[in-house]
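QA checklist item 7 of 12: single-chain prediction sanity check.
[x] sequence parsed
[x] length recorded as 73
[x] structure emitted
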Amino acid sequence: MKKLKRISALLGVFILIAMYLCTLIFALIDSPVASDLLKASIAATIFVPVILYGLLMVTRLLKDDSKDNSDHK
């Protein structure tokens, strides 16, 4: 389980770095589509970590809840 967490964390870091690089590239590109791509990239940079954090909180709550239920049996 610990190894899975480390792999997931490294994958998350890689995805965030890739999104930040895409945001930078889209900001520097001189193209008519670049503005829309930049907006989408900034939105993803904000929403993806928020969604991942929410999923992490839900898994922690479910994990703690399952421990409590197994103790009462």
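[x] summary fact logged: Residues 10 and 16 are 10 Å apart (CA to CA).
[ ] second reviewer sign-off
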